[in-house]
Amino acid sequence: MAYDEYLADRIRQQLKEKRTAFSELKMMGGLCFKVDNKMLCGIHLDKKYGDNLLMARIGESVYEDELKKTECLPMDFTGRPMRGYIFVTPDGFDTDDDLSYWLDLCIAFNPLAKASKPKKKKAK
Q1: Containing H/E element for 106?
Q2: Measured distance CA(70)–CA(11) in Å, rounded
Q3: What is the spatial distance between Cα 90 and Cα 33, in angstroms, rounded to a whole number?
Q4: What does 12-63 look like in DSSP terms, one character per residue?
Q5: Which parts of the sequence belong to the TfoX N-terminal domain (predicted)?
Q6: How much is the average pLDDT of 9-28?
Q7: Which residue, 19, 89, 104, 115, is the most exposed by fewest CB within 10 angstroms?
Q8: Residue 57 contacts by C-beta under 8 Å, 6 or more apart in sequence?
Q9: CA–CA gap between residue 122 and residue 11 (Å, rounded)
Q10: Stretch 25-35: mean pLDDT
Q11: pLDDT, tens digit (0-9, with 9 covering 90-100), for 41-91
């Protein structure tokens, strides 16, 4: 099962409404939305949780407070949570207002975020 296309469409629509230029990148069965070549948010099908989760890059300044919410989980792929990133369960983005809240946090943090270093191409 791949990522939730309906959620992807909802994110696209809201980013357009917010006049936010974005690109998309398919990653490991999920989808990443990028703004200014930096990860903004994404959709991740979590096998352990059993559903699609919203990945949100919200930054460390709001991380601890947002993580206290029942619909939030630490973003943890390796056994060590990534500070500044959270997973939001479907209860947390059920309504358009809920989804908009998370996207606004991501958009507010994006100018402060560091872009990933481009991968070097291997010599042949």
Answers
A1: helix 96-109
A2: 22
A3: 18
A4: HHHHHHTT---EEEEETTEEEEEETTEEEEEEEEETTTTEEEEEEE--HHHH
A5: 21-108
A6: 94
A7: 19
A8: 38, 39, 40, 41, 84, 85, 106, 109, 110, 113
A9: 34
A10: 89
A11: 999 888 777 789 999 999 999 999 999 999 999 988 777 888 899 999 999
Token pair 């309504």: residue: 95
Identity at 106, one-letter amino acid code: C
Q: Tell me which amino acid residue 4 is.
A: D
In one-letter notation, the amino acid at residue 39 is M
Answer whether 44's CB lies under 8 Å from 55's CB: yes
Q: Tell me what pLDDT residue 82 has.
A: 87
- Show the tokens assigned to 47: 């096998």
Position of tokens 């099962």?
A: 1
Spatial neighbors of 63 by CB under 8 A, at least 6 apart, are 83, 84, 86
The token pair at 121 is 């191409």
